[in-house]
């Protein structure tokens, strides 16, 4: 067994330090965000953002709190076609980044 740390391989994390579970959680959060916008079920944003989120959107900067983000998104006047996001299952064998 080598004592050289460069020969140690931890397969539970990719080269950015994210575990497979982390990557899945990020993918699920992004999917939930798209679902909230596409379906206009904006209460789903509570599962996307923390209550103390600070967000800057092109249509509204310096939003503080999930309620402010939700209201800004709801109040934005857009057509339904502009709210179409890709929300389909991801291929199972994508490499972890």
TrEMBL record:
Residues 20-86 form the SnoaL-like domain. Pfam families: SnoaL_4. This is SnoaL-like domain-containing protein. It comes from Sporormia fimetaria CBS 119925. The lineage of its organism: Eukaryota, Fungi, Dikarya, Ascomycota, Pezizomycotina.
